[in-house]
Amino acid sequence: MDILSTSLVDWSRAQFALTAMYHWLFVPLTLGLGIIMSIMESVYVVKKDEKWKKIAKFWMMLFGINFAVGVATGLILEFEFGTNWSNYSWFVGDIFGAPLAIEGIVAFFLEATFISIMYFGWDKVSKRFHLASTWLTVFGATISAYWILVANGWMQNPTGMTFNPDTVRNEMNDFWAVAFNPLSVNKFFHTVLSGWVVGGLFVVGVSAYLMLRAKRLANTEETQDFARKSMWIGAIFGLVATILVCLTGDTSSENVAKYQPMKLAAMEGLYEGKAGAELIGFGIVNPSKQSYNDSVKPVICKVAFPKMLSWLSFGSMDAYVPGIRNIIDGGYTTPDGGTAVSFEDKVAHGKEANEALKNYRIAKKNGDIQEMAKQRAIMDAHFKYFGYSYLENPEQTIPNVPLTFYSFHLMVALGGLFIIVFAVVLWMLYRKKMKPSKWLYLLVFCIPLGYIAGQAGWIVAEVGRQPWTIQDLLPVQAAVSKLDVSSVQTTFWIFASLFTILLAAELTIMVKQIKKGF
Amino acid sequence: MTYIFLQQYWWLIVSLLGAILVSLFFVQGGQSVILSLSKKEEDRVKLIGLLGSKWEITFTTLVTFGGAFFASFPLFYSTSFGGAYWAWMLLLLCFVLQAVSYEFQKKKGNLFGSTTYRVFLMINGLLAPILVGVVVGTFFTGANFTVSKEQIYDLSNPIISVWNSPWHGLEALWSSPLNLLLGAVVLFLSRVLAMLYILNRAKNKDFDDAVAKKMKKRLWIYSVLFVFHFLLFLYDLLTMSGYAVNPSTSEIFIEPYKYFHNFLQMPAVSAILLVGVVLVLYGCLRTLFSKKFGSGIWFAGSGAILAVLSLLLVAGWNNTAYYPSLTDPQSSLTIFNSSSSYFTLNTMFYVSLLVPFVIAYIAYTWKVLARKETK
Ligand code: HEM
Q1: What one-character-per-residue DSSP string does A481-514 give?
Q2: Do A231 and A97 reside in the same domain of the chain?
Q3: Could you list the residue range(s) of the whole structural domain that residue B152 is in?
């Protein structure tokens, strides 16, 4: 069997993407709604007003329905590192495992233990203990997000480790560099806050729906009142979260520019770099562009903001942003003052490193200590581009441009839209103009948009970094498990149908419960 | 701390998590009797409710077991999960069913009706213990794989761990009787523990006398089945050859009566096994013969932890290969050749000091929930 078979790699990627995307349909709501319901319960405890207990309990019930599927898909994701990316698991296990273990010990147990108090403990523990349990559940979920994003951030910007030729893997030598990788820290805030945005949109949308439905429920007045109260909290929370998401997104862009220039170029469809590069607000990726070095215009019908990409990426209007062709050809001056290495040279470095690794191990077998030291020095000198040894042509380093481009622009545009939506809702609530009307359906319509923005974000982050499972060190085709394509196809379809059925069941349950009202 | 100490320590922690997981399978045992518990709907609902406040801990223990194994012995993670693909996938699938069923079975609009979700719970209740038993069986009986780190510089085929059976893990079901035997042991153990749990709750008036009587009868049957399979398993284990590793050359060789020797050479581990088995039996017998005794679950539950712990310890300690390769014995995994680096194990050592704290708050919250349930 040919391990480089694109089909195996593609199906393994598809399976991981499928699981991750389904997982990310449930987690954002857990993170966002979790905080909102905790705030509501806090209001109840402070004000001692039973109304707020009822409101909090309603949202908690929806939280619970959503939570279960998130847990299930998360389990699969964790194990898929091993089942489908076995080489990867060995290559990074020494670093990647620690955050995962901490996640389990520190975060998951917190979540799993206190959620049972949250649901089963209302009349069994004191109000304060119950409130603490609710917060601890959400706190557990949030720190678990931290550790998994530490792992993800490390893959995009590997730090705090050295490659050990004896064990043929990366080994951690600085835990704090891994745990506080600047890329991971920012990723945590951007990602968790995006979950809060989803939570805000959900609460606002569902409350809008309940305002419309109130007249058909027995407790019309109460429903109106509770929905309005919920909407206030959802909208304030959502507005703050959206502003922060956009701010952290700005830092994300800087990080991408610094650590993954190819991803940035793909996000903007930038093939030819320039100083004072423009940021595209709207555009169409030209389907007739065939090759990275033809002269076809990459983006047509575009509306762009001059110099803004340079500013967004490097904080200076005149900074040079390399395009896809420049990154492949090399030769431009990098922000740290060095000269960019071309694809061909990177491959050469990678092969040197790989060859030295081989010679090192032969020397070790022969007990030739001097030779070992010599080969190790060569390997270390070239290791930065180790992963390029598995690549054959420069096209392999270019991610899917249209997908990355559209996802990025969609995410940013939706961010802008959400700020407007939350601001308008707050204004209407403040002016007491929030009355049942058909317009409220627009707010219901915004719920899925929140999810779409988050999925788009992940597409930017993950499709944009292809072909790397670990930036510059391990491409997908050297990371995959050696399985029959048919096995992976089978599990793909099993998961696809199972998750879809579960999603359908969850949605109908959700809708039924929402229709009942508070 | 030396590297070897840390490797032994992490094998202990992973084994402990595995042992706790097995004893928490009382949840699975309970799930598998939901429909046969009683004809009354309220009893079934009660049982699902009781298990429903516990299953997350079992599930989380599984996740943490996976995470800790990955972190401390990544070569096992990459070799076994990527190789015994179908065995692990089946296990995962049956846990997905569990995760959604508790929440969905009681809700309107769940598309398939509550019985379907209860059947899902039963499937998980049966399949999870059997599969875990079978997979752990291969820690003793081995599997068909090779590990070759040299592969990394074969640029067109750089995959290190390769599985050599087209069944990708399912072959464990028939490759050696010991695997299935262990599957049966874990299954009946989960049932025994479940009966003890239900009887404990019956003492607290969660179930009536009719249910208690029925479960006591069942406890008889499952205890006998458990003891019978366990003895067979133990006999097999003590008489079989195992893969040993020479600590100075790292060479793997076959040693007759390896596990028997391990018990002899590690008397503390034998003592753990003995105490564990005695506790399980005491929990069962006293529950069976006394009218008032309702705490059998505590004895049998902690006994199960100890017994399983001792079995996992003889699989990995005392220079034993815990994952023997039948294809190429030198590819076998030991706690030395498959572990994380000194630095990582040492860092995680400090994290693991939190485990008692975690256990303490879990115990505390369970106590809070249980005490008031009786009111
Ligand atoms: C001005 C607005 C925004 C900017 C400039 C921005 C920027 C970015 C960038 C550059 C990435 C890729 C980071 C990487 O690859 O490491 C990213 C990822 C992501 N974005 Fe945004 N974003 C914005 C708004 C939003 C909104 C409104 C949401 C959702 C509600 C969102 C959700 C995400 C998610 C979930 C990811 C993937 C996780 C990550 O890599 O951080 N973003 N964003």
Answers
A1: ----HHHHHHHHHHHHHHHHHHHHHHHHHHHHHH
A2: yes
A3: 3-374
